[in-house]
Write a structure and sequence with these properties.
This protein is mostly helical and 147 residues long. The protein has two domains: 1-36, no CATH class; 47-146, no CATH class. The protein has helices spanning 7-15, 19-30, 47-60, 62-65, 68-74, 79-89, 100-113, 127-131, 135-146. The chain is globular. The structure holds heme C (HEC).
Amino acid sequence: MKHDFLLPLQGSLMRTGLGAVVAIGLAGAAIGQEADAAPVEGGLVTAEQAARGDALYEQRCATCHGADIVDSFASYPNAALFFGYVSTAMPADAPGSMPPQQYADIIAYLMTEIGQPVGTEEVAADQAALAEISPAAIKAANAEGDQ
Ligand code: HEC
């Protein structure tokens, strides 16, 4: 089952009244709309990659943004949208000037900032793979874990 990994989340989502939203998302996915990307399990980011992304963020993004992009990232339904924007429009003083993998490293860093556990695989600069990563869901799952 493609969406088995959602099951641990469902109880708490139901309690918060978001169950209906999840159900609609699953129905959409079932008919081929992948816009509602599912939350990812641990292991899609390594600590090394997140550290690289942290350093890149400090050098290339923080001068203009401070830490505000963390919250912005968390509002994206999937990481491919974020990647598509930042890899063509950012840094604003040199748009698209960084190698694709460096934007993926920054995404890896931002994922850990909102609660993604580290593991053994790296985030790839690949639209299809990034579309499966939901920052909003990572953030939501992490917020529940904190309660
Ligand atoms: C020279 C200053 C500057 C740098 C460096 C810069 N940005 Fe931006 N960024 C901006 C400005 C200005 C905007 C607003 C652009 C607009 O509205 O058209 C923006 C907008 C954004 C947005 C969309 C708005 C939001 O808050 O979600 C994202 C995401 C973003 N930047 C990410 C990055 C990332 C990631 C980096 C580093 C790779 C970066 N930026 C580097 C100036 C900068």
